[in-house]
Amino acid sequence: MTKIQWTEQTWNPIVGCTITTPGCTNCYAMKAAYRMGHNPKTPQYHGLTKKVNGNAVWTGKMNLAESVLLQPFKRKKPTMYFVNSMGDLFHESVPDEWIDRVFAVMALCPQHTFQVLTKRADRMREYMTGDMAAHRIARPAVDFMLAHKTLCNAAADAVHSHGDIDFPDEISIRHWPLPNVWLGVSVEDQTRADERIPLLLDTPAAVRFVSAEPLLGAVQLNRIAQSVDTFSDCGGHPDPAVPLDSHNALWLNALGGKMDAENREPNGNRIGDSDVGLIHEGGKIDWVIVGGESGPKARPMHPDWARSLRDQCVAAGVPFFFKQWGEWADQTNNTSISSKYQQLIFTASGETLGAGWRNNGCVEDRWKERGGAWMVKVGTKAAGNLLDGKEWQQMPEVG
Question: Cβ distance 142 to 171 under 8 Å?
């Protein structure tokens, strides 16, 4: 079991990672890996972290746990697995051969659903679109079937053989991308959304999803910045060498899989948006998860950021899952808050205005007009997961 509300079980065949963007600053996995690194029953975590200024930090070492790799074979009941909650499957230090073995297990366990989440969207796209990917993954799949016949006796249909099973070049995974594997990217702010989501949409997957947790800024999934000069008439891949400006902006609506152009006058004044009629060559986002940060050093999430993503998803008909507020709860309309809680005024731009009392000499007399929210650090359990009084736990429909 797991405390992660949007899955049923975590599966960590590969463990270890490194900090890459602001969303990693208070990574829960670093702290957990440090604790397990001192447990003789979990040797795969030994050496993954070290203490720096009193804090657990990744060392950059990665480990493949053979015993953990086989776990899904032993579970007959169809289960939703979150893959690598204690690392990143597509980390630059993970060999392709390790990823092949993980995908081979997923291919041989069609009864399960596997959710793969990464911050390395470029590596994921490269891996999933690489030459002979289905053939490469089939080789360790055959090895598993031969070595663990009692575990894999119901999984052979996932592998298609053109001849004798002893000839790896003549076999491949029957369905690619795997129909039971969901692929997603983490996006904590607009910058990371603009970087990772176009790569995700150009990656073959049965289901594509976005996890905006911890959400550290406003994100417009229907306005992902792209460069108009780098797209063909039907869409294409962005060229990071071409800078975006007001005259070549092309926007990707990742919730609908379409491109929109923003028209501006020569002086930069916005004329308006027009649908240029382009369908993006890739797919679209099928599911969005939103959550605030937990832990003693958690940063607050402005309620308008969460509301905006919910409204975008509702308008596009995309399932929306609000996981949690995190440590900080929105108490803007609560007139009786205990002084024992840490409090602050938090604007929609992410600015902290101060921790004065709202009704008694507040440091900003017009903080509400500035888009401020009164955030109180009450703890994850007390903050809960209600957004405007409603629980949002929508899941993609697959089948």
Answer: yes
Shared-domain flag, residues 153 and 20? yes
- Tokens at residue 195, please? 């970087």
99-121: pLDDT as tens digits: 999 999 999 898 999 999 999 99
**Residue that terminates a domain, selected from 152, 186, 220:** 186
- Residue 140 corresponds to which amino acid? P
How many domains, in total, are found in the chain? 2
Which domain, by its residues, includes 315? 289-391
Task: Write down which residue in 124, 159, 186 finishes a domain.
Answer: 186
Listed in sequence order, the residues at least 6 apart from 169 whose beta carbon sits closer than 8 Å to its beta carbon are: 135
Q: Is residue 304 a part of any domain in this protein? A: yes
Q: Mean pLDDT for the chain?
A: 84
80 beta partners = 113
Of 26 and 364, the structure prediction assigns the larger pLDDT to 26
